[in-house]
Amino acid sequence: MEKPCSLLVHFDKGSAAMANEIKADLEGGDGPAKADAMRRAISLLLNGETLPQLFITIVRYVLPSEDHTVQKLLLLYLEIIDRRDPAGRALPEMILICQNLRNNLQSPNEYIRGVTLRFLCRLSEPEVLEPLVPSVLANLEHRHQFIRRHAVSAVSAIYRLPHGDQLIPDAPEFVERMLASEQDASARRNAFLMLCACAQERAVSYLLSNADRVAEWPDLLQMAVLDLIRKVCRSQNRANKGRYITIITSLLSAPSTAVVYECAGALVSLSSAPTAVRAAANTYCQLLSSQSDNNVKLILLDRLNELRTLHRDVMVGVVMDVLRALASPNLDVKRKVLDLVLDLLTPRNVEEVVLYLKKEVVKTQAGDLEKGGEYRQMLVQTIHACAVEYPEVAGSVVHLLMDFLGDTNVAAAVDVVLFVREIIETNPKLRVSMIQRLIDTFYQIRASRVCSCALWILGEYSLSLSEVESAIATIKQCLGDLPFYTVSDEGETTDSTKPAQPVVNSVTVSSRRPVVLADGTYATQSAATETISTPSIAPGSLSSTLNLRSLILSGDFFLAAVVACTLSKLVLRLEEVQPSKVESNKACTGALLIMTSILQLGQSSYLPHPIDNDSYDRIVLCVRLLCNTGDDVRKIWLQSCRQSFAKMLAEKQFRETEEMKAKAQISHAQPDDLIDFYHLKSRKGMSQLELEDEVHDDLKAATGGFTKDADDANKLNRILQLTGFSDPVYAEAFVTVHHYDIVLDVTVINRTKETLQNMCLELATMGDLKLVDRPQNYTLAPESSKQIRANIKVSSTETGVIFGNIVYETSNVMERSVVVLNDIHIDIMDYISPATCADVTFRNMWAEFEWENKVAVNTVIQDEKEFLNHIIKSTNMKCLTPPSALDGECGFLAANLYAKSVFGEDALVNISIEKQLDGKLSGYIRIRSKTQGIALSLGDKITLKQKGGS
């Protein structure tokens, strides 16, 4: 067993020869030699050696030494040796040490006295301590503060021993008298802590009698005061609550930031009044702006988020103060600030918040910010969320954000175009200006996904004649001249691209390759793109306006199919708004020419990969549509698509509203709860803060705010039996899973008629679990029980196993007996909780995460939706696929699930199943995550649970 000690040094284990060398050095060496020998002896003891032969030598030759280093090492030696016999009594040899300790406590050297007093804090043998008590008490009045502060600690340690009140019965009175006259900060703190632990009434009396001077006390003592106030109020003793609040309020202006932080936390735990919460929130915000450490900022943001969950109405007033923390260069801090601000939006502050975020977006254009693209993406997502909840603010930011459609950060550009797509549907007043802005900036877009979404917007929301004509002209300009490539029999490369608008400079880039024609002759195939500098661009810079052409020539035929669909919609709408048939036919002919050129390019050998079947079928459909259009088909292309998008947005809003309602806490008060009518109470001497607190407490009591969430029935379900009923020792454990640790409360019952000595609970772990401390040895009387607590740290979301045994000794059996315990399996479900994310975010994470676990569907359930609900319930995940997408009976089902662990890990699940002819379900469940542990553990859980229906 490892032994507690203040010195932990690795040292190679020695031999008998080394022990003899140490003994010789102790007997004949001088001060430095003895010190070196003592160091070697202590290192051997810490590494498992016993060295019983050294004790008498040390008593004879080391105790008389006056060397300070030797005396300090002697105290370390006495701390780590076994000072008790197997029966639990102090060794007789320890009496030899008492005289030396007494001499040290009366030594004229302050250092010797101090280290000896500090050593006494770790002694627990009454036989050794009893003769030293008078000397310890005499040191309480020593002239040197170093000795007084350690003397108080020694008195406190002795008094808190099982029979310490018999050794120093008047310890609280001695310490209280010393505290009244003490001037040293550390000594006052130690004395006050002793009263808090051993005589709380005296500590409270001292605090209340000096309440006016607490703000002048040193910060060490102020921290102890705050701990006392928390402890007193936690014991439901709220008689002096008003005076405690006054003390805390006076400390809010203390110079120590640690004291100020603790004051804010104590104030919130003590009072729920809006004034108190507002003071705590302002304090956190001031610390947030004054502290430079990112970890401190994250902790403060967590505290503010906790206040937000309980007192949102009060926190709304500090939202602008929270936004100032965006000045931090750390992205994690920025992300937490933006998430917190989103939860504090109201119609009153949304305009200020959006204006501030707009300024931050402008700052990201400077280019000197580290990770400016990621920060800009977060800002765009936040502004998007603000505009969705409060559409009236969209007009002030949408035009600014559209400048970033061509952002080099593709994720940020995608967020912008999705924001534009949603706002243009929900805000009809902005459609005209947004369409014109999109047409003007379309040539800047370089990402295929952004181009696809922007083309869809142009096809759906270009309604007037001028908008339709501008959209068609823009698309043609970005495609360039047709055809996309030319074939020359002479082997020459020809330029097929002509400027579509006045230009300043142009550079043509051509590529060619030999091909074999149908008749067996050789020819050269070429493609050309033109780089054009338009007047809107700074002089001397070259920017390609042929973005669609370059993307299609790179083989992106999905984008080519989107171009064909957009042109079809624009031509159909042009036929409705254009009175001239000639112009309509001309636009239709141009669109058909573009589509056939794309098909020709896709079927040629110029590109390494031909056009895919889906894109080919889509473009051919567009060609047939323009050649022969019926009214029903026209209605589908021009109206149904937009109606489906509007329905999707409405359903998304409905789902978010339902989730918010589900999160709302439903509290119920018991019918026999006490009702305290504060109007009938005397208000004499009560401050405004106390009056507010009375009102708030009554409101919480009426709405069930004080109702405890703990359910005793659920606790009984978490009890695990560790041993059998026929074992001499019965043990069971209650497992409590916190975020980062597991607490095992083990109840051990001695079922025999004998006393169990040196009984120890030995535990070991498998997986990413770590035992924090080893439980100590106990002596268990016949037919008695003992509660043993063990703490286990968790470092990742992974299924782990805790196993071990109980070892004990009896007087009849010389050997140690062992009872093996049942294994405790830690479930991954205790660490993950349902979460939600955008579809784009889900797809990005799915493509990024490298760990995938593929589980085949093997279940007796024959209904697809029932199986999906069973997996959701078994894995504690959130289904991101909307209910409307799961409606109907088609024999197929595909859904995405998402959850987040307490360590911030993401768990992604995709379910794809099909109903076979025999009624059974087949398919796969794919799990992806950034870490291997969560993917494997979640897969094992699904494999175990998917067969049953419960």
From TrEMBL:
Keywords: Cytoplasm, Cytoplasmic vesicle, ER-Golgi transport, Golgi apparatus, Membrane, Protein transport, Repeat, Transport
Domain spans labelled Coatomer beta subunit appendage platform: 815-942
Keyword Repeat: yes
One Gene Ontology biological process: protein transport
Domain Clathrin/coatomer adaptor adaptin-like N-terminal: 21-472
Residue ranges of every copy of the Coatomer beta subunit C-terminal domain listed in the record: 671-809
Localisation per UniProt entry: Cytoplasm; Golgi apparatus membrane; Cytoplasmic vesicle, COPI-coated vesicle membrane
Keyword Lipid metabolism: no
Protein topology in the membrane: Peripheral membrane protein
Pfam families membership: Adaptin_N (PF01602), Coatamer_beta_C (PF07718), Coatomer_b_Cpla (PF14806)
One Gene Ontology term, aspect cellular component: COPI-coated vesicle membrane
Known role: The coatomer is a cytosolic protein complex that binds to dilysine motifs and reversibly associates with Golgi non-clathrin-coated vesicles, which further mediate biosynthetic protein transport from the ER, via the Golgi up to the trans Golgi network. Coatomer complex is required for budding from Golgi membranes, and is essential for the retrograde Golgi-to-ER transport of dilysine-tagged proteins.
PANTHER family: COATOMER SUBUNIT BETA
Subunit note: Oligomeric complex that consists of at least the alpha, beta, beta', gamma, delta, epsilon and zeta subunits.
Name listed for the protein in its UniProt record: Coatomer subunit beta
